[in-house]
Structures are given as structure tokens and as C-alpha cells.
């Protein structure tokens, strides 16, 4: 049998190894500890290097170094740990380096809690680091999707020479579901002729750098990056449109929250009411078109998040004032209750005052 | 149609997580849709532990059980107090009566009382109390075949624990037998 039952964090680690990851640098934090634990055991067996750094800042800079030397490298952490890594992520983006960063989100701000949350939306889509950089941010909703994306993530990073972030919440990290490891569609990857692996006296030195003191040089560097980001918007935007043929109202949610929304949709179906769901699989690039394509039947959009409202801003941009937008959110590790979402939907449809 | 939503709860060390994993693994082996969601936190041995298991013939949306559990399995008193309300009307609550003297207070659910620890001791191994309870649950809900459970058990516990499997199988069978007497 090809399906296996694995815990989310372990499945992510195994998928990374199968996706070609050879270097892992990290620092422990709940709720993602099973990921580095699995890596520490399995990565060396697969010809790779696992190293527990002295801090998150050290870990991300080790990622920077390994990526610059051409290694397929990743790190993982959870919200406050990712906050510490933001400077390094900005440097990696600035130096055009491929790397994969996994964020298993917990409640914030500050040290927050250890239960599932989605309150890192702004941190991961806007970039906590400085500058005009972007990176693809994947937000899978189940373990199979998580594993598929992890196996592809290193190719995407190499293809664009750009960091890629994969985000789950604590629930995705801790739960078990059956998964199957399937090889992703291969991409034609550029030769890494820019890496700093020693000239051997045969070529001019390569330089990995994000410092450009000449203003015009820096602008040109940034404009080149913008072209890359435009390609990502064109090629990497992913979304699931669910029950969107003739919805009376559209829910929008990602990750674990979208699964709760699907239960809500099933409940409404029993009453003969059609509710749709737009589920972003990438939150950058954000699936704007899905919102433009919302059928005329829809009376509004309800954004559901495990935060006090962050993705809602992107929904407002995508909606461009067309439909009324409602919000239901829980935070701090609390998980939205389907009944509360149902009530909010009914309120928006005018059924309950 | 099978659409089981089971809460397994007890204190750390009672094997409630493993109990849930065995049901989950068995469902997967029978090509059903399954999910296993643990509570997690700063708890260790002796603290509270619980997991939510789903076995379904249709894809699983949310892996979270709210007040729609089809079965609630409680191995100690705090778990009964905490999870009694999560049982859907008409569902089952399975109580480890060795450690829980209190009765189920709800009248809209079916309650079953299984002296898991005592039966386990009679069988000669206190550790198989969870397997006795698993047997009782399987007898009542029958979400997966018992032969599948015996195969899944080896996968969940690991091949190196294979020598304990006859004892586990015996405990499951005993649990099935005991609960039969309580079925109305």
C-alpha cells in the first residue's frame, strides 16, 4: 500500500527530503518540533546535514550561506521564531537565493501561545523584513496538499532563485492523515552558475550580496526582482474554488479554517442553500481573479480566519468594493466553531437579526 | 454509511492516543477517509490527553469535533466531565468504570460502562486497559473490520512490539464480549 499515516510535521520533513533537501538549520519551538526531530534522524541518512543552531537568527543565516554555496536548504520555525528570521529572509531575497522556510503558526503577538493560529498572515505575505521583496507563500489545507507542495517547494525556489514559504497552523503540524508521496511535475531548472563554491582558479569569483550602494544599481536590481515576481503572479497563483457555481454567499478561508468552512457548506446544502468557498492555496500571490469571477448570485463575502482579520485586507482589494464583506475570526489558539460561522452567514443573508 | 467521529480521552500513559491511532490506521487500510487530531500542550505523563478521530466514507472537512461526536471514550473522570457535552444526541459514551464511579448524566445518549483496568489485570497486564476499551468501541460502532485492527496494531506499535500482539488481541476480544452484555 502506498499510503502512509504520518503526523503533519514529520510528513513535511519526509516530503522535504524527497524534494531534494540536503541541509536543515533550525532552532526548536512548539508546535513544529517533530519536524527538526525527524530531520535530525533522517536527513544524515540521506546524505544531508542537520544542524541545530544556537538561535533562529543563526539558523536563517546558515540557510543564507548554504543557499549561496548552492545547497538545497531549508529551515522551519513557528511564529515568534519566524519573526526573528525576517532579517535573514530579506537578505536571502535581496541576494536572489533559493531556500524553503516552513512556518507552523501559533498564536501571537510576542511569545503568544502554542495552539493553532493564522495571525502570521501579514508577517508572511508582507514580509517582516525590509525592502520590496516578495516570496511565494503556500497555505495548504490538508496533509496531502502540504506534502505535495513541500516536494515541489525546492524546485520553485531554485526556478526563481527566491525564498519560498510554506505555512501551516499548529493543527496541520500535529494531526495525522493518510498521505502518498508523489513526485512533482519536473521543472526545467537553471544551472546554478552563480554559486560560491570555489573558483578552483578557473573562473572569476561569484559574489553573493544584497548591498548596492549606487542608487541606480539598487533600483535596477529591484526592477529585475519585480519581473521575477510578475512571473510568480502569472505562474504560481493557486486557489480552490469550491461550490462556486451559484452561491448565495461566498466564504473565503485558507488552511485549517477552510476545512471548517466546508463543513458549514455541507450543513447549508441540507437546507438547500448554496454557499461557495474561495480557498487561497497561495496567499502571495493572492488569487485576485477568483474574486473577480464570483457569480452574480452571490450577495456577499464572509472572510473566516484564525486571527482578528488580516487576509480580509487582501479580500477587500480583490473585491474592489463590489460586494459587502463580513468577517468572523477567532484568535489566540481558539478554533472557529461551525455554528458561529453558520449564524454569521445567516445574518449576512438577512435570515437572523 | 460510516461517518465516525470519536473522542478518546484519558490521562497521559493510558494509551488513548494509541487507541485513536489504531482506529485511524485501520480506517486508512480499508481505504476510508481518516484523520487523527491530538490535543497538544505542555502536558506530559499523568496530564490529560485526548485525540479526535474521524473515519468516514466521504472526504473529511474539519478534523475538529465540536458537539457532534458519534462516540466519546473516557478513561478517567476529568475526561468524562470535560467531553460528555461533546457527544451528539443519540451517540455513545464509553466509560472506564474501573476509574470512574460517576454515571453519565445525559439521557439523550447511550452509556456503556466497561471495567477496563480490572479486565486488563485479569488478563495479566494492566497496560492493555486501552485495548479492552478499544474492543468495546469496535463491537458497538463497527467502523472497521477486526482483522484490519489486528494488522493496524502491529503498524502503530511497531514490529518490535509484535510479541505483545496476542495479549492485545485477547484484550480487544474481551472488551467486545463484555460490552455485548450491555447492548439493549
Q: What does it look like?
A:
- By secondary structure, chain A is of the alpha/beta class.
- Helix content of chain A is 41%, strand content 18%.
- Chain A folds into two domains: 4-236, 3-Layer(aba) Sandwich (Rossmann fold); 239-349, Rossmann fold, CATH 3.40.50.920.
- In chain A, the strands form three sheets. In chain A, strands 3-2-4-5-7-6-12 form a seven-stranded mixed β-sheet, with helices on both faces. A five-stranded mixed β-sheet of chain A has the order 9-11-10-13-14, with helices on both faces.
- The model of chain A has no long low-confidence stretch (mean pLDDT 96).
- With 184 residues, chain B is α/β, with parallel strands linked by helices.
- Chain B has a single domain (3-180), classed as Pyruvate-ferredoxin Oxidoreductase, domain 3, CATH 3.40.920.
- Helix content of chain B is 38%, strand content 24%.
- Chain B has helices at 16-29, 77-83, 116-123, 129-141, 146-157, 165-180; strands at 3-11, 33-38, 48-56, 69-74, 87-96, 110-114.
- Chain B has a six-stranded mixed β-sheet with strand order 2-3-1-4-5-6, sandwiched between helices.
- In chain B, helix 2 (77-83) links the parallel strand 4 (69-74) and strand 5 (87-96).
- In chain B, helix 1 (16-29) crosses helix 5 and helix 3 (116-123) crosses helix 4.
- The longest helix of chain B has 16 residues, at 165-180.
- The two termini of chain B are 22 Å apart.
- Chain A binds chain B through residues 1, 3, 5, 30-31, 114-115, 170-171, 174-178, 256, 259-260, 262-263, 266, 335, 337-339, and chain B through 21, 24-25, 28-29, 34-38, 40-42, 60-64, 66, 155.
- The string of secondary-structure elements of chain A, in order, is EHEHEHEHEHEHEHEHEEHEEHEHEH
- Domain module tally of chain A: 2
Structural class determined from secondary elements of chain B = alpha/beta
- State the CATH topology of chain B: Pyruvate-ferredoxin Oxidoreductase, domain 3
Alpha-carbon distance between the termini of chain B? 22 Å
Mean pLDDT of chain B: 94
CATH H-tier superfamily of chain B: Pyruvate-ferredoxin oxidoreductase, PFOR, domain III
In the CATH scheme, the class of chain B would be Alpha Beta
In DSSP terms (H or I, runs of 4 or more residues), the helix count of chain A works out at 12
Show unreliable segments of chain A.
Answer: none
CA-CA gap between termini of chain A: 52 Å
Q: Based on the coordinates given, report the CATH architecture of chain B.
A: 3-Layer(aba) Sandwich
Largest interface: A-B, 24 and 20 residues
Helix/sheet category of chain A: alpha/beta
Question: Averaging pLDDT over every residue of chain A, what do you get?
Answer: 96
Amino acid at each position: 500500500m502506498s499510503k502512509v499515516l504520518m503526523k503533519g510535521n514529520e510528513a513535511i520533513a519526509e516530503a522535504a527530503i524527497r524534494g531534494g533537501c540536503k541541509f536543515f538549520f533550525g532552532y526548536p519551538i512548539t508546535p513544529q518540533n517533530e519536524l527538526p526531530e525527524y530531520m535530525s534522524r533522517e536527513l544524515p541518512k540521506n546524505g544531508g546535514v542537520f544542524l541545530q543552531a544556537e538561535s533562529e537568527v543563526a539558523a536563517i543565516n546558515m540557510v543564507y550561506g548554504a543557499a549561496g554555496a548552492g545547497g538545497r536548504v531549508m529551515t522551519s520555525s513557528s511564529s515568534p521564531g519566524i519573526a526573528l528570521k525576517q532579517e535573514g529572509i530579506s537578505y536571502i531575497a535581496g541576494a536572489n537565493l533559493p531556500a524553503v522556510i516552513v512556518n507552523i503558526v501559533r498564536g501571537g503577538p510576542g511569545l503568544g501561545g502554542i495552539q493553532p493560529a493564522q495571525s502570521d498572515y501579514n508577517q508572511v505575505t508582507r514580509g517582516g523584513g525590509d525592502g520590496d521583496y516578495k516570496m511565494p507563500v503556500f497555505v495548504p489545507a490538508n496533509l496531502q496538499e502540504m506534502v505535495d507542495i513541500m516536494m515541489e517547494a525546492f524546485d520553485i525556489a531554485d526556478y526563481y532563485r527566491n525564498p519560498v514559504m510554506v505555512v501551516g497552523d499548529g493543527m496541520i503540524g500535529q494531526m495525522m492523515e493518510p498521505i502518498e508521496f508523489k513526485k512533482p511535475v519536473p521543472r526545467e531548472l537553471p544551472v546554478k552558475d552563480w554559486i560560491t563554491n570555489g573558483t578552483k582558479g578557473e573562473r572569476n569569483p561569484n559574489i553573493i550580496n544584497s548591498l548596492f550602494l549606487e542608487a541606480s544599481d539598487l533600483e535596477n536590481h529591484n526592477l529585475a526582482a519585480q519581473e521575477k515576481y510578475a512571473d510568480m503572479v502569472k505562474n504560481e497563483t493557486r486557489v480552490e474554488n469550491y461550490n462556486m457555481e451559484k452561491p448565495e454567499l461566498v466564504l473565503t478561508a485558507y488552511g485549517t479554517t477552510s476545512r471548517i468552512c466546508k463543513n458549514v457548506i455541507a450543513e447549508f446544502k441540507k437546507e438547500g442553500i448554496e454557499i461557495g468557498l474561495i480557498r487561497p492555496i497561495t496567499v502571495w500571490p493572492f488569487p485576485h481573479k477568483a474574486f473577480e469571477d464570483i457569480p452574480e448570485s452571490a450577495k456577499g463575502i464572509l472572510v473566516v480566519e484564525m486571527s482578528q482579520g488580516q487576509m480580509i485586507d487582501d479580500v477587500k482589494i480583490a473585491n474592489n468594493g463590489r460586494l459587502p464583506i463580513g468577517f468572523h475570526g477567532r484568535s489566540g489558539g481558539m478554533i472557529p466553531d461551525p455554528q458561529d460561522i453558520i449564524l454569521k452567514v445567516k445574518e449576512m443573508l438577512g435570515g437572523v437579526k | 454509511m460510516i461517518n465516525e467521529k470519536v473522542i478518546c480521552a484519558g490521562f497521559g500513559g493510558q494509551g488513548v492516543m494509541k487507541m485513536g491511532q489504531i482506529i485511524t490506521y485501520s480506517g486508512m487500510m480499508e481505504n476510508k477517509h481518516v484523520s487523527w487530531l491530538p490535543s497538544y500542550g505542555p502536558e506530559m505523563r499523568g496530564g490529560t490527553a485526548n485525540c479526535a478521530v474521524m473515519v468516514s466514507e466521504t472526504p473529511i472537512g474539519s478534523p475538529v469535533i465540536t458537539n457532534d461526536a458519534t462516540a466519546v471514550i473516557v478513561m478517567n473522570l476529568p475526561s468524562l466531565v470535560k467531553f460528555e457535552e461533546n457527544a451528539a444526541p443519540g451517540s455513545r459514551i464509553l466509560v472506564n468504570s474501573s476509574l470512574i464511579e460517576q454515571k453519565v448524566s445525559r439521557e439523550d445518549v447511550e452509556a456503556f460502562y466497561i471495567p477496563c483496568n480490572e479486565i486488563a489485570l485479569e488478563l495479566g497486564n494492566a497496560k492493555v486497559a486501552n485495548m479492552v476499551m478499544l474492543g468495546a468501541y469496535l463491537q458497538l460502532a463497527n467502523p472497521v473490520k477486526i482483522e484490519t485492527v489486528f494488522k493496524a496494531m502491529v503498524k502503530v506499535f511497531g514490529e518490535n512490539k509484535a510479541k505483545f500482539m496476542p495479549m492485545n488481541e485477547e484484550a480487544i476480544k474481551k472488551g467486545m464480549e463484555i460490552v455485548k452484555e450491555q447492548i439493549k
